[in-house]
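Database export, one record per block. Field names are fixed; values are copied verbatim from the stored entry.
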Amino acid sequence: MTRDTAKASTATAARDGSETDQPARSFRIGAHEIAARPLEPGLYLVSTPIGNLGDITLRGLETLAGADIIACEDTRVSRVLLDRFGITTRPYAYHEHNAERVGPKLMQALDASKSVALISDAGTPLISDPGYRISQTAIEAGIAVIPIPGASAPMAALVASGLPSDTFLFAGFLPSKDKARRDRYAGFATTEATLMFFESPNRLAASLKSAAEVLGTDRPAAVCRELTKAYEEVRRGTLGELAARYEDESVRGEIVLVIGPGSTPPPSEEDVDALLGKLTADLPAGKAATEAARLTGKPRKDLYARLLAMKAASPEEEA
């Protein structure tokens, strides 16, 4: 029997329940026990709550209960969730410190047509954790990778911040050193998207001060702390206001810093003249002005007038 045939046979058995050695699996909500069907072979990326256990989805519970293997960052953290909903499958630790050793074992299970559910301590797997490694390996091996969406701290912070959500960028953890942190902020200074960062409570005051100095005190922002937990807090204001507010305040908990979009500074007159000169080398004046208007956002008629003035000031040399 070929590998593909074996996988198809196992998947069919999982669907019709014909595997006699498959233990009964279930999860519990309150006093109600709900049966969970065995899963198709593959790697399941299951989102878990970021604080409030009630944020787990029904599909997430069914996937965790039905999986052959549950891989997690910290078995102690995941056991709290599993016990809460009566899921008895033993979780196995998979994190950055043992990925080289445990990753191949998980791939062996996937290659043997097992179902593996991957979870992080909180939120969506692969977001700022090492799960992307096994996901990439599984994809390269032709194994199904199935997302089970749910809670996500960056998304929760974005919608709570009140800042523009049509274009956004999650940039992970900020550097711990001030110089590196300022450089990171500077790299996003003109990014026309709402920015989201994870930040340590111990560094929040210094980070806000740096952000205000690098990005501007009037830039809108929000500090989202302990989202979905008992002491959830969202403070909104400008970077200058937030920096002053947290300057002498002791902070605890997990934090997402959200900063409003930047903007690209308008080109200088020298830059516009250089662009017009470059464009007129290959295009007629009218088309050059049209292209310059598209690139700079300036009115075409103003650019055309500027182009004519430049030509008048620099007449062509006689042959």
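Remark 1: The mean pLDDT is 88.
Remark 2: Residues 269-313 form one domain.
End of record.
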